[in-house]
Amino acid sequence: MPLLELRNLSVDFATASGPFRAVDGVDVSVDKGEILAIVGESGSGKSVSMLAMMGLLPWTATVTADVMNFDGKDLRQLSPKARRKIIGKDMAMIFQEPMSSLNPCFTAGYQIKEALRLHLGLDAKARQKRAVELFEMVGIPAPEERLKAFPHQLSGGMNQRVMIAMAIACNPKLLIADEPTTALDVTIQAQILDLLTGLQRDTGMALILITHDMGVVAETAERVSVQYAGQKVEEQPVADLFATPHHPYTSALLAALPERATERHLPTIPGVVPGQFDRPEGCLFSPRCKFADDRCRTVPPVPASADLGFARCHYPLSVSAEAEA
Amino acid sequence: MAETTASTPTAAVARPGRLREFWYYFRENRGAVMGFWVFAAFIVVALFAPWIAPHDPSQQFRDHLLQPPFWQEGGSLAFPLGTDALGRDMLSRLLNGARYSFYVGIVVVAFAATGGIIIGLIAGFAPKWLDTIIMRIMDIVLAFPSLLLALVLVAILGPSLTNAMIAIAIVLQPHYVRLTRASVMSERSKDYVTAAKVAGAGTVRLMFVTVLPNCLSPIIVQGALSFSTAILDAAALGFLGMGAQPPTPEWGTMLAEAREFILRAWWVVTFPGLAILITVLAINLMGDGLRDALDPKLKRS
Amino acid sequence: MLRFIFSRLLTFLPTFFGVTLIAFAFIRVLPGDPIIVMAGERGVTPERYQELITQFGFDRPVIVQYWDYLKGVLHGDLGHSFVTKKPVWDEFFTLFPATLELSLCAIVFATLLGLPAGVIAAVNRGKFFDRTLMSSALIGYSMPIFWWALLLIIVFSGWLGWTPVSGRISLMYYFDNPTGFMLWDALWSGQKGALWSAIHHLILPTIVLGTIPLAVIARQTRSAMLEVLSEDYIRTARAKGLAPFRVNGVHALRNALIPVITVIGLSVGTLLAGAILTETIFSWPGIGKWMVDSIFRRDYPVVQGGLVLIAVMVMIVNLTVDMLYGFINPKIRKR
Hints:
The complex is a heterotrimer. Chain A is an alpha/beta fold. Chain A folds into two domains: 31-43 and 80-227, 3-Layer(aba) Sandwich (Rossmann fold); 247-324, no CATH class. Chain A has 13 helices and eleven strands. In chain A, strands 7-8-9-3-10-11 form a six-stranded mixed β-sheet, sandwiched between helices. In chain A, strands 1, 2, 4, 5 and 6 form a five-stranded antiparallel β-sheet that branches. In chain A, helix 4 (108-120) crosses helix 5, helix 4 (108-120) runs parallel beside helix 7 (156-167) and helix 5 (124-137) packs across helix 7 (156-167). The radius of gyration of chain A is 21 Å and the shape is globular. Chain B is mostly helical. Helices cover 74% and strands 0% of the residues of chain B. The longest helix of chain B is centred in the last third of the chain and has 37 residues, at 203-239. Residues 1-13 of chain B have low confidence and may be disordered. Chain C is mostly helical. Chain C folds into two domains: 35-77, no CATH class; 88-333, MetI-like (MetI-like fold, Orthogonal Bundle), CATH 1.10.3720. At the A-C interface, helix 2 and helix 4 of A face helix 10 and helix 11 of C. Chain C: This is Dipeptide transport system permease protein. Chain C: Belongs to the binding-protein-dependent transport system permease family. Chain C: Residues 96-325 form the ABC transmembrane type-1 domain. Chain C: InterPro entries: BPD_transp_1_N, MetI-like, MetI-like_sf. Chain C: It is found in: Cell membrane.
């Protein structure tokens, strides 16, 4: 049984101009100790599906799912109180903006110890010891000093390390990293990714990495799920995905990687992810797809077989990416 | 992201005029619309009070002293809201009182806003030393509690409604100066101002034609809010005997006259105050709505 | 932090001189001969007029007069009241405790009700409680408090007979008032019922004076909370599995408090000075009533001195609030 299993997860937001479906029938499943990457452009509903699972969406959101199991528990059935026992303990999350994700009014130490007291019930001494230990684990020098620092006194990379320390404080079974490196400098990005994969290896937790960066995916993930406009359009093991993408969107994403560029100009995907008002009738990717025909524009496709990476496409590709480009 | 994704269906329709767009947002706030209608009614009453009122506001009916409102025992429909200690019809006095409050509001806001905007624009465009001097002077005015300063000013100028208005306008002015200066400062660094400057616009043109229209939103909101402050302060001064003088049917002055009867005739005290409260409340509701409708930061949420 | 305090102190000085200049100018530069005004309707003989001119130094250049006045102010000499002949300074400090007592009660009342109300409204945004509370707050904010006071007197003193109409304590009790704080002195007088009587007299003035701050604090708390609740770190706190009470009451409130404390502090300044209407209506012997009475008596040295003292007091309170703001906001404190 997978550690986390979501089936047909949908999230709707009530907005002033009517309901907006941010996540549309997404399936996610993660095994113990696995690294899954969820890839997609901004606005493709990657973060929202994870926030929905954690129960962190605002009240304007309605979450529905056929299956929502974590570690043998049905998350849909849990009371808010019971769910809070899991969140932050067995299932933890780190966010995109380390500078604004830590409370500016409390020291880093206070914020990390808060979780330790809540979930593990440690006394003050044990909390301090564990906090220092955690800071060492995530590579923060002079941990005793840094525990006393306020977030604005630390750099972005340092804050993200604090966030990671906080997330792994209670030895979670699943860590969700929501674009953990997007807001950081390039050199720091690599360090943080190394840290995350290293921690994952050492602790054996499962890791869901949400990113829009295919390069990051290639370096870290084992399995990749590609999302587009709230739908999952393809899912494959990382090597296969890079070798033979089945959905034109995946193929286009890969083609846009600088390392793979064959021409002088980097290929791009024209247009943007459809929003609330311009959702196309058929395949959601059809307006931007170079292969789209009338069928694509009128009939929404269903996921293909596992061999074709569950590609949500009428005409899945099956040639290798290099040949394609 | 919002601009690109949300624009498609709306862009098909022609962009609505600024006024219509404003009204669209304003209408969403029910309280503000209610306030707007009450305020409209207040203006109608203020303009047509002498024709609406059943009696002359200063006519004394000596046979009907302190007569209660019509629904109480001893009341009559001739004086629907009763009479005061001199036998004057409460309703007529209240309706006429709306004129004074309206007058106070308009005059005070006009003077405070005009002066404040001009000084604020100057401060925003002036060299640093002049700016500092202007803002220090405003700090000094703001260091005094507004009602106390108005009271002292009126005491020096002599108690009357006109002097009360002057005093209140002076006291309210620094708020406009600060507000205007702050928006000028943030607008001045924007590209369109630089563009106008490069195109050869003079300082005066920059101030009034280029920058000012873009600073108006907060000033309009402040205008609505200080309209209500002006009414409240004028009534307070009248209540303390430093505003409109009896027998003027100004609401605050009426309250002052009614004070000694508070335990005998509740209506002489209740109605003038209620009139002030309803008017001020309506304007504040409207001001809140204006702010929400004009503030682009809140529009998207 | 030290530099922060120092820079604030630097802006204090010019404002202080400006305030003294305005108070000075009120009497000497504005139209009307001060001596004639002081003499009032009785008039004054030419000899006495000359004598007064010399006594007040009106025959010297205005600059010199201001310089003398400023020196006096800096030495605590604000002149003597025309009416009581006592130094303005002494009168102020005899009456100040009454105002301070009332203002503190009002601000405590407003904070204790307004803060939780604002938090609950923000957490239940858009629901019935929020709408009711915000409507009430707007009514409170629009309230002509002199009328509000009269209404409360009609209901609680007139109809129900629960509270007294004016003063600080029943005339039955007489004791020394060494601190000027009636609650404290009544408690230590040992007279039975004295404290109760003092509290009784405080209730209505406190409510009246606290109404507008209450509305302001509730509105400010709500909007600050709403802003904070959409911050990323609130999501982080929730992602830790913290209970809503802890998320809202600790993580959100601690940040929302920064602007709210500023508002509370600034209201203390306005209350200390702005108790004019409340004190007049309830015959509360504080500085607000003192100022109004002096204005009516044309007791100009008192008006002048009172203006300076009140403005300085407001400035000191605002300065303190500024520093407090620096202290409660870690971003400024540790820089």
